[in-house]
Structure formats: structure tokens, C-alpha cells
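User: I'm putting together a teaching handout on how multi-component assemblies are represented. Below are the sequence lines for each component of a complex, exactly as they appear in our records. Could you produce the 3D structure of the whole assembly as C-alpha cells, so the students can see both representations side by side? Please keep the chain order the same as the input.
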Amino acid sequence: MIPNDLLAMQSTKAMEYLIAVAFLLLFIPFWRFVNAKAVAERVVVSEVSRRLGRVLDWFLVPDQVYFHPGHAWARVGDGGLVTVGMDDFSQKLVGEVSAIRLPEVGARLGQGEKGWCLQSESKSIDMLSPVDGVVVAVNGQVVASPEKVNLDPYGDGWLLRVRAPRLAANLKQLLSGTLAKRWMEEVCENLRMMMDPDLGRVYQDGGLPIHGMARGLNPSRWDAVARTFFLT
Amino acid sequence: MNETVQRTVATRSWVTEELLMGLSPREYVRTLVTPWNIAAALVLLVGLPVIAYRFLYGLGAVTNLSQTNPWGLWIGLDVLCGVALAAGGYTLASSVYLFGLKEYYPLLRPAILTGFLGYFFVVVGLLVDLGQPWRIPYPVIYSYGVTSVMFLVAWHVFLYLTVQFLEFCPAILEWLGWRNIRRWVTRLTIGATVFGVILSTLHQSALGALFLMAPTRLHPLWYTPFIPIYFFISSIVAGLGMVIMESALSHKIFRDQIDPERHVELDAITLALGKAASVVLFTYLFLKLLGIADGGHWELLRTPFGHWFLVELLGFVLLPCFLFAHGVREKNVRLVRATAVLTVIGIIVNRLNVSIIAFNWDVPDRYVPSGMEVITSITIITLGILTFRWIVNRMPVLREHPEYRGVH
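Assistant: Of course. Below is the structure of the complete assembly, with chains in the same order as your input.
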């Protein structure tokens, strides 16, 4: 039998072997193509993590306060009245606030819907209300001097008092205690992922300016960065 | 007396909180009036009477099925595509529980729910398609018929549906607040998951094996002895594509239910799933080439059916394989998501090719589904989507239940 006949008889098998070998050979460049940037990026991420350390310690997460994922807080007071404000993370993210537009007394709020509006550098950012209800009091001092929010976000910097008829259902959707701390850890992790790897070179002490972090992350579109965290 | 009153009040508040999502019945009904709900209501308004008509007057009155073409759109779309697209459940369950890839856990419950509902509505589709639907439990409890390949299919569907229900039970029990039963069921869940992975891999390939019995009816380019392997491997791609697509849609539609950190997490998971899909598609492409070589059908690629085969192979296997790889490399999550849609369409095209388009390809009496068959299929799919939404809005599927955070 001459070799050509053998090939003709076995052409199907030969083709199958060729396809199998081609698969193995092509898989190597294919795998390299898919994984091209992975190694470089892992190095960068771990480098950033090392430089920035534990970001969680920067933010206050007090007990007895319920947190909405949009970075508003709620504290239940006497007579079922709920005090509402923006959390430490949000005031540090936005930095200096030039004005706060609060709803009027008697206005209706919905959990997860627009609650109030912050203004800074001609940009305005909405924040979400942590509970449903009717506004019964507004913190006039904060409206007059918004820096109170930066000085004491969980105390004098409160924003609204709300009568919340569906409080039990609302609180189920909020986070408190260890759950809130875990959530804040994860928020910090996201923040760290968003930080530019080059920041390490800019801030040689290994940290970020805590006040107005959003501006540090993206000077021109810092309001968009803030909105991502505030879910608005 | 006092206790009865308290219990009645507790039941009423449970109904308001968990069934009506904290709204009064009137408020709840008002929230239902949305454009999507109106469209869905219209579909049901037309579709449900058609289904009733089919049960009253039989298959002949509604379908274009015949002795030559006994399987039509309901088997091709509702059953074959339904099963393939439900594969996200076993794909993710095996990743999380068998391979220990815990980072995919956030997507596991929605994937299992999709899998469970996918199979559930496959059974609904089968009930509509069977000439004597009341006999659907026969292979399980009355007349086994072990010599029929349908015996295998029936048992797979029956067992896997039960297993998926068990896998999803923790979510239902968390919703009901039954802590003790949940603890017991969770122990069963791991075993059920392992059993489910075995069952579904067998079942995906068994559906392909059905066509091994029709070597003369299926076009040679689609008919090969490898068809069970094709069904199995392509189901992995279908599962990955569905999980990517559905998680993106869910995160958009049910945004308020999802913790903010999940949004960032999802991008990383999407890229990882995209990478897996590209590798599986790459392998699948070469296996398809082996199929052509094995049958020696290269010359058939020059015929019109061959061109259509190439559209499937190049447009819905090679192209998404490259796009997934490119998207992953460039960290382009949107491209990966768009490619997932293309892949899912590709799987539907493949299953319809095998079951309808390339099936009975050379008979003069070609099957074309009737309008009522199409309406019935759309109705069943709409019912599936509505059920998915109803469950996701109430049970801890996309969000973790506050009392069970971090408990897997």
C-alpha cells in the first residue's frame, strides 16, 4: 500500500487529529490573549491596598443609628419620631457643603426616594430619604450654617425629624450595628477600588485628604462620583 | 380570645408586609399599573383563552403539527431552549459548591430561581404539548416505560425540578421566617446541589440524545453522534450567558433591592463569567468542526443549509467567543453583556435549528408554527417572567435577608 492510499483511507481520522492538534496549539495564544492584562492589574491593586491601608477607620459608624445604602441615617426617638441626616462617609465624600435644600415641614418622604439636596461649587447632588413619612421639623441651624453637617453629622448636623407610619417595615430595609459596619467596610473597599493607582505618588504620606474625597478622586466629575455612592 | 385577635393581627400584618410589600391593597393595585404590566396583561388576555381553547378542542385545532412533524415550536422553544437557558442554575451551583468559587455566591440564588422557573415552565409547555397531558406523571408513578428514551427525560425533569425547588427552599423559608426548618433544609441543600449538577448534566445531554434516534430526519450537518456532547457544552455557554444577561437586567430593574457594593462586585463577576464563556465557546467551536470532519460533510457547507450552518457557527459561536475574549481583555463589561445576549440568541438558534429548521429538512410538508402556537409560547414565557418578578420582589433573592447576612 503506498502512503497516498493510506492517507485517503484515513483522511477522516487525519482531519480529526489535525483539528484536535490545531485546538491545542491555538488554545495557547487564545489563553494569553484573554489573560493579557490580568497580571499587571493584580500588582497595581495590591499596591494601592498596601499604600492606603484600612480606610474604614476614617468613618464613624455609631451604634443605635440605622443606615440607608444611600448614606443617609435614621435614629428613632421618643414618640416614634425619626431623626434623619447624612452619614459621616457622605459628608467626607462631598467635603464642604455651601447649601442644603431641605423639604418643608409637612412634605411627604418616601424611603429610597429623593429626600434633600446638597449644593457645592455650583453643583447639586440629591440624597435619598432613609424612611417613609411626613416631615415634622427641619434643622434651621444646618440650613443657616451647613458646615454643622461636617462638624457633627450624627448630632447637631441632623437634617429632618419625620413622623414615620411604616417605621417597622422601613427599619427592615436599613442597616445597623455589625451589619452597618460590614456594609461600611464594603463601601470602603469600593472606594479603594475607585482610587487612582497614581494617588500614591501624589499623597506621599500614603493617605488621601479625607475631606472632599470625591474631588480627590475625580476633580471635574466629583459630583458624579458622589452620586454613585448616594445611589442618585 | 385575645390570642386569636393577636394572631389575626399578626397574619394581617404579614400579608401586608410580605405579600403586598408593606402597601395597603389599594396602594398595591395602584403600583401595578405600569406600561410593562399592561403589555403583559394584554399578552395574557389573548394567550390564556388560546391555551384554554387548546385544552378544549385538542392539538389539531390549535397547531400545525402532524404525524410527519409531531414536534413543533412548543418543544423547540419552550422545552429545548427553556432547558438550555435554565442551565445557569447548575453552572453556578457547581462553580460555588463543587469548585469552591465563593465569589459567585451573590448570583447563585437568582440563577437557581431562573433554573427552577425555567424547568417549571418547561413542564407547563409539555402539558400544553402532550396529547394527553393528564398522563404526564405516568413515567414516574404508573407506567414506567423503561424502553423509551422519554423515560429518562421524564425522570430527569421530575427529579431536577424537585432538586431545584429544594435548592431554592432556603429563600422561601427565610421569607416565611421559618428558622428551624430552614436550618434543616440548608443541610439538605448541599446534597441536593451535588445531585442537581449530576442530573442536569445528564439531562442536557439526554435532550441531545433524543435526536440520535432521528439520523435520517435531521440534516447531516447538525446530526452527528456528538450531539449529546454539543447539547451539554452549549448549555454551559447558555447558562453563563443567561446569568450575565439576567444579573445585568436584575441590577437595573431591581436596583433598589441591591446593596450598592454589589454593583461594583457584579462588574468583576461579569468579566470572570465572560472569560469562562469565551473558553467554553472556543472548545465548542472545535468540537463542532470535529463533527463535520467525522461525518465528512465539508461539501455540504456549500449548500443553502450549509450557509445557514456557517451563520450559526461563525456568527453565534466564533464571533461571541472573540467578543467575550476581547471584552474581558479590555475590561469592557458592556461588551461582555452585549455578547451574552448574542450568545443566548445563538443557543436559541441552535436548538430551533436542531428541532425545527434542520429537522425534516427534506420533506415536502415543512412545518411552520401556527399563530396560536406562537401566542401560546409567548404567553408561557410572559408567565415565567411575571413569576420571576413576583418572587424577586418578595423573597431574598437579589438581596440577602438581614437576619442571614453572610450565612451561606
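A couple of points students might notice: The mean pLDDT of chain B is 86. The domain at 34-397 of chain B is CATH 1.20.1630.10 (Formate dehydrogenase/DMSO reductase fold).
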